[in-house]
Amino acid sequence: MAKPEDKTILVVEDEPDVQMFLASTLGDAGFRVVTASNGLDAYNHVKESIPDLITLDLVMPRQSGVLFYKRLRKNPKFVHVPVVIITAHAHDDLGQEDFGDIMKGIDAPRPEGFLEKPVQPTDLVRKAGELTGADVSAYVDDAVENARTSLVDRLRSADAATLTEVRALLEKQG
Predict the structure, then answer these.
(1) Digit-coded pLDDT (tens) for 99-113
(2) Is the dihedral of CA 24, 25, 26, 30 positive or negative?
(3) What is the 3-state secondary structure (H, E, C) of the chain?
(4) pTM
(5) What is the rounded distance in angstroms from the CA atom of residue 37 to the CA atom of residue 160?
(6) 121-132 and 16-28 are packed helices; what angle lies between their axes, rounded to 10 degrees?
(7) For 63-91, how does the pLDDT look when each residue is reduced to its tens digit (9 = 90+)?
């Protein structure tokens, strides 16, 4: 299995905070990360150096993720690059129609994945590992252990009412 540091991911996202979050998460897992803030910049990046994976926001200025995606899929040199759509607009008027068309494979093959914002770091890293063939188990295992430790620490300091609520939730699921 490949190492994350041998794989490059292009993060295409126009919101600076979200772009930084996605790039940092993937970088922390060991991936090489490059970024673009619109479809035009993303296409230029891909022409210069084909990434192993693209994460793609759909709603962006200059050139939307939708147009970039269709353009990418029409070029035989880039059709093999896996794409994960990352959007907050899958269910609203701003992006629902375009998202639906892309996920149905209208005008272009379906993307290899979809994550809805807000994205959980372990979900993003797992999907990146799956689509690039990179071993991300160390990152995912560390994230799970950190979450477990954090939860135990919070439970230790919780008041009786909170513990009662947590117990009820756990029993409900059990």
Answers:
(1) 566 766 677 778 899
(2) positive
(3) CECHHHCEEEEECCCHHHHHHHHHHHHHCCCEEEEECCHHHHHHHHHHCCCCEEEECCCCCCCCHHHHHHHHHHCCCCCCCCEEEEECCCCCCCCHHHHHHHHHCCCCCCCCEEEECCCCHHHHHHHHHHHHCECCHHHHHHHHHHHHHHHHHHHHCCCHHHHHHHHHHHHHHC
(4) 0.78
(5) 47
(6) 60
(7) 788 889 989 999 999 999 999 999 875 55
* Residues written for the chain: 174
- Measured in degrees and rounded to the nearest 5, phi and psi for residue 92 equal -125, 175
In degrees, to the nearest 5, what angle opens at C-alpha 126 toward C-alphas 29 and 122? 70
Prior bond to 61 cis, omega within 30? no
- List CB contacts of 108: < 8 A, sequence separation 6 or more: 69, 70, 73, 74, 102
Q: Cα separation of 128 and 150, whole Å?
A: 25
Beta-sheet pairing, 32-36 with 53-56: unpaired
- Measured CA to CA in angstroms, residue 16 lies from 20, 24, 25, 34, 114 at distances of 6, 12, 14, 13, 20
